């Protein structure tokens, strides 16, 4: 018993010694820099943490007014630098200095969840190559599957139907087209659909773990949150058997058909096939030589990114549309109806969807209006430090966050009354929701801008288009969001009950 206690004491002393040594080593090598001003705080150790969590909007606004567009805060035991509208794109474009992936890794070790960075890099490459080239082909399937999902989860509403958990319903609706894009044969498989949704929420929950141990040292939080992953637990592990049991037969059939038919074989158009076309994954078309674990983790990475972002991006414009129903609903319905009448075939083409300029601008304004206060953390990976164009310097290892509110509330960038919701403010500037600009940061920017934004925006527009044509939607409360609520810098998702009822007009299906 004594030996065990002594052993524990030695281990604890060793850990404390390592931390002290690291701190001493860092202090001994510190170079005096012209760092951005550190905002004043009263409580040692806690710093700005409480204000950042409880009233981030006020903290950022007051700090911006007092210290300028570049300043620093002390949150969860470490200094983070906040950059405003003048410096944001300096961070986004200098990917050799500011790494978003490393910044995100400080919060959640996604590289351990998905086993390796190579999978994440592969996801980005496939998304960048696959989506633009295949979107024209995919748009027909997206429409059919969203229509099918609406019928399945909302259905006919001759009498008013109350949807008590709209966010879950939206997740259910978008799971079907997303599954179809990732593995075409499995889009109606209930096990796969539930796996897609469950996996997304399991990983998303990891982002909600507060980095309390960072008060001692950020390294401790990273070690704590990764302990289960290092000892074998993984949110993907729970779903691995389901994936392999359903996807393995699909892969085997595809490889068999390709080998048997040769040039006559017509490859499916989906994400899975993009992986199978990689010689490193299928070197000899032999299903026995495929690393199924690699394939599963790669697919899971695609699922998480697609499902998490689309769920948020679709629910916000729907609620904004309902909240501002008297002002915008009828006008957007008329646009949808006119486009529906003019189309030359039963399905909308990409050209038809591009004509939804009012709906596109509405979606963009909704996303602009409900972004985080600050976000997109980037880690400075310079060898020693980086000097901004404004003269301020940040050391290597510093987390730099973008001040979205500074960009969103700027009259020069947004036009008149930037804090007010004007659905059509983007039309006169010929500024679609997929366009990367200085005044719209939700998709990032530069080399590492979101590669799937065109797919997400088109899915949302098709979804809202069908809602407008088929239903009247309302809520039984007077105001959906009387005042925007935040948890730290992040807007709290709205999940107010919605009432659906069939439209009375007869429209072309």
UniProtKB/TrEMBL annotation:
Reply yes or no: does the keyword Membrane apply.
Answer: yes
Instruction: Give the location in the cell.
Output: Membrane
Give yes or no: UniProt keyword Transmembrane.
Answer: yes
Q: Where do the coiled-coil regions begin and end?
A: none
Q: Which Pfam families match?
A: p450 (PF00067)
Give the transmembrane region(s).
Answer: 6-25
Q: Which GO terms describe its molecular function?
A: heme binding; iron ion binding; monooxygenase activity; oxidoreductase activity, acting on paired donors, with incorporation or reduction of molecular oxygen
Q: Which UniProt keywords apply?
A: Heme, Iron, Membrane, Metal-binding, Monooxygenase, Oxidoreductase, Transmembrane, Transmembrane helix
* Residues that bind heme: 450
Where on the tree of life does the source sit, at the highest rank?
Answer: Eukaryota
Identify which cofactors the protein needs according to its UniProt entry.
Answer: heme
Q: Which Gene3D superfamilies match?
A: Cytochrome P450
CC annotations in GO: membrane
Similarity comment: Belongs to the cytochrome P450 family.
- What is this protein called in UniProt? Cytochrome P450
Name its species: Gigaspora margarita
């Amino acid at each position: 018993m004594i030996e065990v206690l002594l052993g524990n004491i030695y281990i604890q002393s060793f850990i404390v010694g390592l931390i002290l040594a690291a701190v001493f080593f860092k202090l001994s090598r510190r170079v005096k820099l012209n760092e951005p001003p550190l905002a004043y705080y009263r409580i040692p150790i806690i710093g700005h943490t409480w204000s950042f969590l409880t009233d981030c909007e006020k903290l950022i606004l007051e700090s911006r007014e007092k210290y300028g567009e570049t300043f620093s805060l002390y949150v969860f035991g470490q200094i983070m630098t906040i950059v405003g509208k003048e410096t944001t794109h300096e961070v986004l474009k200098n990917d050799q200095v500011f790494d978003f992936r490393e910044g995100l890794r400080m919060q959640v070790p996604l590289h351990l969840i998905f086993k390796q960075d190579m999978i994440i890099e592969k996801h980005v490459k496939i998304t960048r190559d696959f989506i633009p080239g295949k979107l024209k082909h995919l748009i027909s399937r997206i429409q059919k599957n969203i229509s099918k999902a609406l019928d399945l989860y909302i259905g006919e509403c001759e009498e008013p139907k109350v949807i008590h958990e709209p966010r879950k319903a939206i997740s259910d609706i978008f799971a079907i087209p997303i599954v179809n894009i990732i593995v075409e044969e499995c889009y109606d498989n209930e096990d796969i659909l539930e796996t897609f949704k469950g996996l997304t929420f399991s990983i998303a929950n990891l982002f909600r773990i507060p980095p309390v141990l960072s008060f001692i040292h950020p390294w401790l939080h990273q070690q704590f949150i990764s302990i289960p992953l290092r000892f074998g637990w993984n949110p993907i592990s729970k779903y691995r058997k389901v994936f392999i049991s359903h996807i393995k037969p699909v892969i085997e059939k595809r490889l068999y058909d390709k080998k048997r038919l040769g040039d006559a074989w017509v490859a499916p158009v989906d994400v899975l096939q993009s992986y199978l076309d990689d010689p490193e994954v299928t070197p000899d078309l032999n299903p026995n030589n495929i690393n199924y674990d690699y394939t599963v983790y790669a697919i899971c990475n695609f699922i998480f990114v697609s499902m998490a972002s689309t769920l948020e991006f679709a629910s916000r414009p729907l609620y904004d549309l309902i909240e501002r129903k008297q002002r915008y609903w009828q006008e957007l319905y008329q646009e949808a109806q006119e486009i529906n009448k003019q189309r030359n075939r039963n399905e909308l083409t990409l050209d038809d969807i591009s004509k939804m300029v009012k709906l596109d601008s509405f979606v963009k304004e909704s996303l602009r209006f409900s972004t985080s206060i600050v976000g997109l953390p980037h880690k400075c990976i310079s060898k020693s430090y980086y000097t901004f164009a404004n003269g301020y310097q940040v050391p290597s290892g510093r987390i730099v966050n973008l001040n979205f509110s500074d960009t969103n509330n700027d009259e020069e960038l947004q036009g008149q009354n930037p804090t007010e919701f004007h659905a059509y403010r983007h039309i006169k500037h010929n500024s679609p929701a997929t366009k990367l600009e200085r005044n719209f940061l939700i998709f990032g920017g530069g080399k590492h801008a979101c590669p799937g934004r065109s797919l997400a925006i088109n899915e949302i527009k098709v979804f809202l288009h069908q809602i407008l044509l088929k239903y009247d939607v309302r809520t039984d409360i007077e105001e959906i969001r009387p005042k925007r609520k935040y948890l730290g810098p992040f807007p709290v998702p709205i999940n107010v009950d919605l009432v659906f009822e069939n439209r009375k007009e007869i429209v072309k299906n």
